[in-house]
Amino acid sequence: MPIRRLSVRGVRNLAPLTIQPHSRVNFIYGDNGSGKSSLLESIALLSSGKSFRSNQIKQLILHDADRLELECEMGEPDEEKTQNLYSLRLRNGDVLFRLDGSVLTSQAQVASCLPVQVIEPNTFRLLVGSPEDRRQFLDWGVFHVEPGFIEEWRIFRKVLKQRNSVLKQKETSWLDVWDDGFMEASEKIHQYRLAYLKDFVPRFETTLAALDESIKVGLHYYPGWEKDSQLKDILARQQERDLQLGYTQSGPHRAELRIRVNKLPAADVLSRGQQKTVVAALKLTQGILYKQSCGNAPIYLVDDLASELDSRHRLALCQVLEDLKCQVFITSIEKQQLMDSWTPSDFKVFHVEHGKIEEESLS
């Protein structure tokens, strides 16, 4: 559901604010350092518990403040029913989530209520970053379209932790017991990912062609062990080495989505601009599949559009977002640059200056 009202307190340089964004497109412009990225960062933090600009949540909290508070009212514009999501984060690390006054016990519950996709200047790290980055990207999609995935993932993580503990303690007599549970949990995770990618890959190819027909990229799934071997055989072959290392070398926790051009890593072949186009296609494809599965599209946060793509690719990206009919928050330094890229029929414009945000009249 789109955000109807958003309140932010204690985030970076932003003054306490409450805005009523449009259910479709929201243009946000202002000088560098004005706070426009911090506004998008607040929405991302509310959804995922993570910042796309910093690994340290403490850095998000306003100087001398002991907490940050985020709250949003969600609902379709033509429906009376709404949901209220609230998040409190203290500098000491304590967190609190509430949905319509009821306490939520995990960030995963929050994310399921407020699915968000981010496209920002460092997005291309999805190609050049670690396998973990691409694994997390893949699992975002699986989590949001397969309701049973999160519970199976929790089971797998528990079994993996137990197996690693046995390896560290050199308790070889217990390995067979935990291997059986590990293989069963691994297979379930593997099948969830395979099912998701079966729909994802052809849709991605179509979306990438809509952005740039000249870019040809292949997606290849590595499950975390040799494809032509059984995990059972891999564990047996690696047991001695696992015992030496004290952890499990193979399994779904080592999976990766490999992105290649003619068998070479895409990051080694494509230009920086092409890499950003590919990542934009990946992010857009996740939104398309989410909408097909759940009926509604996720919210898109597009930070600093001009630095991401040239004018031709900006127009192509905005057209896909227009067709997706999702809520979008999109920032740029200049207002005209935003309007030249996209002039949708339904939108609002917000100006940010010195941490204060004001809605502009369209008249």
Topology readout:
Blueprint: E1 3-9, E2 17-19, E3 25-29, H1 36-48, E4 67-74, E5 83-90, E6 95-99, E7 102-104, H2 107-113, E8 116-119, H3 125-128, H4 131-145, H5 149-169, H6 175-211, E9 218-222, H7 231-245, E10 256-261, E11 264-265, H8 266-269, H9 272-294, E12 299-302, H10 305-308, H11 311-324, E13 328-332, H12 335-341, E14 347-353, E15 356-360
Parallel strand pairs: 3-13, 3-14, 8-12, 12-13
Antiparallel strand pairs: 1-2, 1-4, 4-5, 5-6, 6-7, 9-10, 10-11, 14-15
Cα-to-Cα separation, first versus last residue: 28 Å
CATH class of the domain at 1-115 and 299-316 and 325-363 reads: Alpha Beta
State the helicity in percent bands. 40-55%
Determine Rg (CA atoms, Å). Answer: 22 Å
Give the strand tally: 15
Largest beta-sheet details: 6 strands, antiparallel
What does this 3D model show about the protein?
This protein has 363 residues and is of the alpha/beta class. The protein has a domain of 172 residues: 3-Layer(aba) Sandwich (Rossmann fold). Helices cover 45% and strands 21% of the residues. It is built from 12 helices and 15 strands. Strands 2-1-4-5-6-7 form a 6-stranded antiparallel β-sheet, with helices on one face. Strands 8-12-13-3-14-15 form a 6-stranded mixed β-sheet, sandwiched between helices. It has a 3-stranded antiparallel β-sheet with strand order 9-10-11. Helix 4 packs across helix 6, helix 4 runs parallel beside helix 9 and helix 9 packs parallel to helix 11. It is globular. The protein starts with a strand and ends with a strand.
